[in-house]
UniProtKB/TrEMBL annotation:
SUPFAM superfamilies attached to this UniProt entry: Sigma2 domain of RNA polymerase sigma factors, Sigma3 and sigma4 domains of RNA polymerase sigma factors
Biological process according to GO: DNA-templated transcription initiation
Upper lineage: Bacteria, Pseudomonadati, Bacteroidota, Bacteroidia, Marinilabiliales
Keyword match rRNA-binding: no
Annotated protein name in UniProt: RNA polymerase subunit sigma-24
Positions of the RNA polymerase sigma factor 70 region 4 type domain: 105-153
Keywords from the named record: Sigma factor, Transcription, Transcription regulation
Length: 161
């Protein structure tokens, strides 16, 4: 199939393929994406040009892509449901214990020296490595390690009480 033949096929059938998927999905962006992917897959097959069979093949490809997308989303939804913690699973005692621990944690963070708190939060909240913290604060890596060690030790003692 030449580029001109492909362009003719695209111009004649893109809207109908997109509408077909839109009617099934009610999602305009998804319909456009699948229609484009269908034409790309057809182009990659490098078939001889015969409009009627190619049109049928386009519908088949679009339908298969839609079903694959639907199945992937269904699996993803099942996975997300399993990941979400159910609030009902925690007893009132567990929720109270969590709130008390969170309060202790906040209080202990406030009691840390500013230098230790800064290093601790940069490491734990921002996910920075000791070298990155040292570069930002213009310190040696050993100084960062020492501050972090003191902060962790203090927090262990404060939360263990």
């Amino acid at each position: 199939m030449t580029q001109e033949e492909f362009k003719l096929l695209f111009d004649n059938h893109f809207d109908s393929i997109r509408n077909y998927i839109y009617y099934r999905s009610r999602d305009e962006e998804l319909a456009t994406d699948i229609a484009q992917d269908s034409f790309m897959k057809l182009w990659e097959k490098n078939l001889d040009f015969d409009e009627k069979p190619l049109r049928a093949l386009l519908y088949k490809i679009a339908n298969d892509l839609f079903i694959s997308k639907y199945r992937r989303e269904k699996v993803a939804q099942k996975y997300l449901v399993k990941l979400e913690p159910a609030v009902d699973n925690y007893s009132p005692e567990d929720q109270l214990a969590y709130k008390e621990l969170a309060t202790k944690y906040e209080t202990a963070l406030e009691e840390l020296s500013e230098k230790q708190r800064t290093v601790f939060l940069m490491s734990r909240m921002e996910g920075l490595k000791y070298q990155e913290i040292a570069d930002r604060l213009e310190l040696s890596v050993k100084a960062v390690e020492k501050r972090m060690s003191y902060a962790l030790s203090f927090l262990r003692n404060a939360l263990g009480k």
